[in-house]
Amino acid sequence: MKPLSIGIILGSTRQGRVSPQVGNWVKEMADRRGDAIYEIVDIADFQLPFFGEGTGQEPGLIAWSKKLSNLDGFVFIVQEYNHSITGALKNALDSARDEWNNKAAGIVSYGSTGGARAAEHLRGILGELLVADVRAHPTFSIFTDFENIQTFKPAELHVDKINSMLDQLIGWSGALKTLRS
Ligand SMILES: Cc1cc2nc3c(=O)[nH]c(=O)nc-3n(C[C@H](O)[C@H](O)[C@H](O)COP(=O)(O)O)c2cc1C
């Protein structure tokens, strides 16, 4: 049986963003498990137009649709911007529809309160997109899990939480794959 493909989606595109550090760390933890193929999916690479403003034929938009179609599940790396998700992530979510449906997701968030408010906003959006979001939710503090709010230095306790999230994500991604086939 083909292994599950899980995309670790970087939610921010800001210059100087810390999300690649967080995403790479999560990928490192995930790769140790050997239970799926994990890959970083960077929204910035796709240069998505604002939803509805382009022709719908932009190469990045077509590549985004293709990328999501080939994934069985997602880990969203979510940073809190004004108590919600970034505009870039919302636009990326809006820029596909069927490609999200009947798949599972885990959320990893960070911010001054662990990015909890952004993560809860994301859960509402995922419900509409028919994405099943798992309960285990690793949260990082920009004050204690980063050095100078810049360099990611996660506390050891987060490793267990990441694995709990991935346990749930892999279970649901496998179950939902049978629904799509
Ligand atoms: C426009 C903007 C708004 C922000 N609003 C919040 C906020 O409401 N709550 C919070 O905890 N952090 C907030 N932050 C801090 C970010 O969570 C922090 O800068 C984080 O590093 C952003 O992720 P990134 O570096 O991957 O872009 C905000 C940052 C920016 C740039």
From TrEMBL:
Taxonomy, superkingdom: Bacteria
Gene Ontology molecular function terms on file: FMN binding; oxidoreductase activity
GO CC aspect terms: cytosol
Transmembrane segments: none
Annotated ranges, domain NADPH-dependent FMN reductase-like: 5-136
InterPro entries per the UniProt record, alphabetical: Flavoprotein-like_sf, FMN_Rdtase-like_dom, NAD(P)H-dep_reductase
Protein name: NAD(P)H-dependent oxidoreductase
Similarity-based family: Belongs to the azoreductase type 2 family.
